[in-house]
Structure of GDSL esterase/lipase 7-like:
Amino acid sequence: MNFFLFHITATVAGLPYPPPIMGMSKIDRKRIQTGVNYASGSSGLLPQNGHFLHKNVINFFQQVDLFENTTMEDLKSKFDSCKGFTQYLSKSLFFIHHAGNDLGLTFETEMAKKYSIDKYAKLLIEEFSKQLKRLYTLGARKFFVSNVSPLGCSPFSINTKNHSGPCVEEINNRVSIYNDLLPSLLKNLQSTLSGSKFVLGDIYKVFQDVFKMPESYGFKDVNTSCCIDNNGTKIQVCAPNIAPCKDRKTRVFFDPFHPSEAMHFLWARRFLKDSSVCSPINLIQLMQA
């Protein structure tokens, strides 16, 4: 789950900065007047995913637990009635960006031994459905859910995998299997959960559009890491105390795994108003609904 994506989206939408829940004291939580960020780097949809890379990962079900045990309790005291509290939650926006880590290194190192990609994608969708239903039960009604970007086009993938084209299509095909299941999940949830609204943000298409015509979006480099790593292999995280490339505003990727700030701003702006990458309505329309 991407903390940076939430911050950028809030900024572009003109909303207050959403502080990370784990960085807030109990007093801060009771005083909070803005949204709250529950994102955790390298987290996944499945309980076990992410922990083989980092021990202190908060997976999606734990993030929902945090929402239930912190924000839910802290917010209630600000309302005179249950009706007012319920109405407040029904107008709130729940932005969810997940499954990239599940479909990337986690699948390759752990899950490919146990599942075919078809069964694994369905397992992810089933778990995702459970947690979205939990959020609905807790009072959430407006959901903006993004799909997964073409992971096979990241600098890490193209520098570590054999491929014949500009990207590693085996990885992108894996992502597409999951992405293809997502629209019907959200449609079914909206039809069965009364009063709910689910909007899909197509990050995959945003990347495709940029790869086809990078210069029209202000990019000159679509597949090189901007940061400098220790060994020069272009597949490691940024080396400490070394400045990144100077032209990072024209790069799609900042490091071997993550998009640049410029790319984040681009898809946040498109989500807000561009219905070609949102379905059935864009983010502004969802916020106003």
